[in-house]
Amino acid sequence: MKTIFTFLLISLFCFVSVAQAQSYAVRGRVLDQRDSSSVIGATIQLIFQSDSAKKSGTTSDIDGYFQIPNLNAGNYTIRVSYLGYATQERAVHIVSGDINVGTIRLKASSNVLQNVVVQAQQVRAQQMGDTTQFNAGAYKTNPDASAEDLVTKMPGVTSDNTGVKVNGETVQTVLVDGKPFFGDDPSLALKNLPAEVIDKIQVFDKLSDQSQFTGFDDGQSQKAINIITKRGKNIGEFGKVYAGYGTDDRYSAGASMNYFNGDQRISLIGLSNNINQQNFSAEDLLGVSGGSSGGRGGGYGGGGGSRGGGGSSSSNFLVGQQNGITKTNSIGLNYSDAWGKKIKVTGSYFFNQTDNTNSTQLTRNYFTNSDTAAQAYNELSNTETKNYNHRFNVRFEYTIDSFNSLIVTPKLSFQNNQYTTNLLGATTLGDAPAGATNNQNISNNTGYSFSNNILFRHRFAKKGRTVSLNIGTQLNEKNGDGKLYALNQYINDTTLLDQQYTVYSNGYTVSPSVVYTEPMGKKGQLMVNYSPSYTKNKSDKETYNFESADQAYTDLDTILSNKYDNTYITQKGGLSYRLGDKKMNFMAGVNYQYATLQGTQDFPYPLDISKPFSSVLPQAMFNYRFSQGTNLRVMYRTNTTAPNITQLQSVVDISNPLLLRTGNPNLKQDFENTLTIRYGKTKSGGGSNFFIYAYGSYIQDYIGNATLIPTKDSAFSNGITINRGSQLTLPVNLNNYFTGKTFVTYGIPVGLIKSNLNLNAGISYSHAPSLINNVENFSNSTTINGGFVLSSNISENVDFTLSYAGNYNIVKNTIQTQSDNSYYSHVVSAKLNYILFKRLVINTSLNENLYSGLGSAYDQNFFLWNAYIGYKFLKDHSLEARVSAYDILNQNKSISRNITDTYIEDSRTQVLTQYFMFTITYTLRHFKSGGMPTNTNNNGGPGDIHAPGGRPPYGGGGPGY
């Protein structure tokens, strides 16, 4: 790592030297003359006066700003245009320095064109710093397409039941005209906004509010999509209402209504169905898992929580998209507005209720050493889960004056979760049965989580000198109770468990941070930061055995009960320096962090721990803009993560008596090094797009798993007996954990068939340590993937997509090479939407799913074929009657493979099977002509108080603004 890092730094400084070559830039801002709102996506051309064939150009960003770099001295004409506005021109003379043309105000044209047919090939994409901007008009979709249908036609964008990914990175936030939409739930905006209102799609790394202001990345960036709505589509009402009923009592009903009036946006969504349409995020499902986090991570990339082993206090809560059959009822309201010139408010409320039933069959093969017979575990389970969640999000921005601003962002979530599972499990050692369990687990949990950030930002009169104070708070609490009844059979023993338990946990974190920046020369800036944090968590569990004499649960089981408190305190401060202009940015910094982890345990035995940790946390970033459409970004950062409270507790989780889990009070925090490289090249004229993403992570003191598989009944240190045929897993610190991946995408238009072709390929590798019966094992997993998407760009009447996604996986481990395995899976998909006679809609999709190498019980090759035919009524085609068929061939299955550091698991879960449905849909589209672009100055553009000298969210900025 040291050699690689040294080489990287030398290379970066070489780039810095090259970047000093003499060139100039022209910058400015485009606003609407009527209300001074930002004009997004305006076309800016710079024409050399002595040779009009020589042109440079760009488009304005979400705040109206633009910059054209790499210009020679000379006389130019700048031309600014946007549909519906009168074109503006002015002379620009470059002599010996950059030129700021200031604000260019466009006046709405008195002759607004209502129907414009553009025959020329539209620009597909533009690279603006490290932001990629796609032109929605270059990707034809059918009239009923959603934002998700649109973005998945774009290079590098994929969507599945785990979410939307861009170049292999999961999208965590979707903004609409720069503003939050239903909090941090990407799916709500993408599934509910129609594609026809979208003008452009921007993909970028969204920095925290404090980082946008200072220009220094604090490691809390999120992959984000910003949806820019069309001019004329931001004043009006649009949405749809639908209801359908089908065979097997399947039903689906819902509504999505939007009222847009410039800055004021009100959206209402709701749905009710039993066909697995789920409209929620992980936040809805984790709202009561409070008390599980041991505290904030340190360093620039820090974040609390766990990567590795040990028990999980969230085991009774859902994570992500649910398998099985789900009934969903949800309703949500989103509000966004500007209250005068100084206050901007966005807020949302979302209620979600789900009732999920699922049946699972799984086989798990463990890696064991030569002294231990091969162990396998088989399970059949039936689960019913009911979940209720209320979620609130608010963002309040107050521009006090030209030097001061305040941002407050509270979030609140309430949840109730009811869970019942009936499970049959069995283990084998070699070919011999070793243990079996028949159990029922019932739980009921209620809780809340609350977080809030208060950010005050002050800009001094001296450009580049700023100070900002952020105070972050987090609160969470969970109450619950449950019952476990289990009949367990081992080789030499049979046991019966009849227990009731109560759980309670709470926690809070206070994390202030102060950042001061000072300009250093014309292109440099120094940052000083200090960010302490204090986290307090409590977790109690009381387990009572059934007492036959009392005919009640009165016998406290101290071994299976737990009372544990822990405190995690960090003190972190450091310096960072950055140097750059519009062509090049370089930043390097270092933090020193001192942390203490303290814990007090009463059950199952008294224990006090106190551990100090000190860490030096370096960070470096390099961003180089080769040309208007070509950008390279390299980021190196370090961070620490403390073990969470569940991993520190030594109480044993016996919810599955064959697979016992416990914590480890002796855990240390881990230390992670990450290196990220992104390279993007976009040719706006030819329409091609090329992107490379590479990521690597190395972790010291990685929190992994130690698994004990006894060859005979054995006593564990805290009084628990591990029967032969069962196993115990606990978290431990291990070294030499490494993971890395690369992802490449290439997109081009195919003029011959009026389509867009997107190619992608990638490889990922993980080297994960574990302990199995105190013998170190390394699980090495390699995945090679590739695919393509060919999507039509013919017209709204013909919309087809052909795609292929294949994965070849190689799994090797060091202690049991006979378990080495390779397997292959792919999905081949074809979709067609065809409109005949302007009213008849024919839609069909066919997926082939192949799994090979999983074994005879799980190898599958099946087809999922869905189709519908609809007819549009009324003059404006707003009413549609549709007959749809799901899983026409009745072959749908759900197969998955999960590879961990200790086992390979194959599972088959319950799926939705064939049904037919009749649906009525009414679509509302009512837009007022002549609408003006809304002011979306939300993310801190250059020169604004929100980012004086800072880097806007699409990158490339510097103190030279």
Would you give an account of this structure?
Residues 458-922 form the Outer membrane protein beta-barrel domain. It is found in: Cell outer membrane. Its main location: membrane. This is TonB-dependent receptor. By secondary structure, the protein is mainly beta. Residues 1-21, 110-120, 282-320 and 930-961 have low confidence and may be disordered. It has a domain at 22-108: Immunoglobulins (Immunoglobulin-like, Sandwich), CATH 2.60.40.10. The strands form 6 sheets. The protein has a 34-stranded mixed sheet that branches. It is 4% helix and 61% strand.
The span between the termini is 36 Å
Q: Please name the fourth-level CATH homologous superfamily of the domain at 22-108.
A: Immunoglobulins
Q: What is the level 1 CATH name of the domain at 22-108?
A: Mainly Beta
Question: Roughly what is the average pLDDT, rounded to an integer?
Answer: 83
Secondary structure elements and their pairing?
Layout: H1 2-18, E1 24-32, E2 43-48, E3 55-59, E4 65-71, E5 74-81, E6 88-94, E7 99-106, E8 125-128, E9 131-135, H2 147-151, E10 157-160, E11 163-166, E12 169-170, E13 173-176, E14 179-180, H3 186-192, E15 198-206, H4 209-214, E16 222-229, E17 235-246, E18 251-261, E19 264-273, H5 282-285, E20 298-299, E21 325-339, E22 343-366, E23 375-399, E24 404-429, E25 432-459, E26 466-490, E27 494-520, E28 524-530, E29 533-547, E30 552-556, E31 562-580, E32 584-603, E33 607-627, E34 630-641, H6 645-648, E35 659-661, E36 670-682, E37 689-700, E38 702-708, E39 714-715, E40 721-722, E41 727-734, E42 737-750, E43 755-772, E44 775-792, E45 798-813, E46 821-836, E47 840-852, E48 860-873, E49 879-886, E50 895-899, E51 903-909, E52 915-927
Parallel strand pairs: 1-7, 13-16, 35-41, 38-43
Antiparallel strand pairs: 1-4, 2-3, 2-5, 5-6, 8-9, 9-15, 10-11, 11-12, 13-14, 15-16, 17-18, 17-52, 18-19, 19-21, 20-34, 21-22, 22-23, 22-51, 23-24, 24-25, 25-26, 26-27, 27-28, 27-29, 28-31, 29-30, 29-31, 31-32, 32-33, 33-34, 34-36, 36-37, 37-42, 38-41, 39-40, 42-43, 43-44, 44-45, 45-46, 46-47, ...
